Amino acid sequence: MSAADARERFATATLRHLGAPLADGVELRHVSAADWHATIDPLWTGTLDRPGHDLSPLFSPEQAAASRDLDAIIGDRLEHRLLLVAGGETIGGYWGQQETFGRYYMTVSMFRPEWRGRGLYKALLARVTAAVADAGFRELYSRHRADNNAILVPKLRAGWVIAAFEITPRWGLTVHLRRYLVDAIALVHEHRVDGARVEELRARGLRLP
């Protein structure tokens, strides 16, 4: 297997699961990073109920430039940049990207307030999960404000688990979630929580005391 194989597998999985409309009249439009930010950044700013702190004024120009240089080293990650379009109007957006160790980070999911509560996020979550699994990732990861029940509840119902809590400078208290795509790793997570699954994990080859 090679990097080219991984990219081809990712592209095939994306077309299979994120190519068709999300719902009746709701199109998934794949765009470049620049077009995504140009469309979503103003929409995001205008629809956040509880916006986080903008930390950019705290960094000197040199610090900001150094951060951009470090980001550039990472290279061309696999990612999804989607606009959700209905009747020619952008009603939301999604961005997810590759991380290391077979992890996929669901970075941003947002909808205009009038389009929330219609099951669109649940449908998007199922599609993204299928595409990521087919592409060969081991797990999905996301983090959310601790009071963001509109996102936390659907994910927990879809088999995601709480992995950590964190206090972040921008958002305050956040919840880290995982969705393991390898069932054996999900069992190890359960074992780490309460010590269960010992015999089953031993039978699968994991050396446990």
Could you explain how this protein is built, in words?
The chain has 209 residues and is α+β, with helices and mostly antiparallel strands. The protein folds into two domains: 107 residues, Aminopeptidase (3-Layer(aba) Sandwich); 68 residues, no CATH class. 42% of the residues lie in helices and 26% in strands. The protein is built from seven helices and seven strands, in the order αβααβββαβαββαα. A seven-stranded mixed sheet has the order 1-2-3-4-5-7-6, with helices on both faces. A hairpin with a 3-residue loop joins strand 6 and strand 7. The chain is globular. The mean pLDDT is 93.
Q: Main traits of this protein?
A:
26% strand; 209 residues; 7 helices; single chain; alpha+beta; 7-stranded mixed β-sheet; Aminopeptidase; 42% helix
